[in-house]
Amino acid sequence: MKRLLLAVAVSTLLAGCATTTSPTGRTQVVGGVSEEQLAQLGAEAFAETKAKTPQSTDGRQSAYVRCVVQRVVEQLPPDWQNIGWETAVFVDDSPNAFALPGGKVGVNTGIFTVAKNQDQLAAVVAHEVGHVYSHHHNERITKQMGTQGALQMLGALAGARYGEGAANAVVQGGSIAAQAGFLLPNSRTQETEADVVGQQLMARAGFDPRQAVNLWQNMIAASRSHPPEWLSTHPNPETRIQELGSRAASLVPVYEQARASGHTPKCG
To answer: What does the cofactor section's free text say about binding (predicted)?
Structure first.
């Protein structure tokens, strides 16, 4: 009953938000914040990261990353290309990268331990750009706002009938249920969608989409363990590799056509 009420409350709170269609055709609920607010939040988060984390002083390394980002971004629609993309390389051993609303891309130096060539780096960058292009930040914020609002609503109902202790239990227990059964599965959906969009972008930019498979093989080799698929914000690595490999086969013609038409990136 608690889960049913939570679902109803979330639906009620999100009813006033907008629906849109992602690049893969998936229906999304967005509008918890405006795109302008998202861009501002992205800029603030990026500035904070730059203030707290040292940036690489290796000019060739920074130029390499900027080149890959630029080639990927050139495959976006014109209005997405012109949002002021900015790139930074952070001195951090963790093999990670991110992209934020407003066109902010950060890459850790640790990524070069798993991304062995420009095609593998493009797989990372295009995946992260895919999150931004697919409105995933807006979608997650909207859902989280709806969930928290719904929990407060249920807590008030429980408190009115059973007292403050019951209200607290509903909110705390509901948060756990929402995290495990509502927010995280959608995050996995977003991760898979970013894989799809990213692989398409890299192929159209002239990067070999098959190298996304090699990247994740390197990721697995570099990591000691990973959480189970049902309680993770990322798809199971083995499942991910199979899906990337299947898509790569269909994207090879796209990649070959891009190369034939002059998209031959020489980033490093």
So the answer is: Binds 1 zinc ion per subunit.
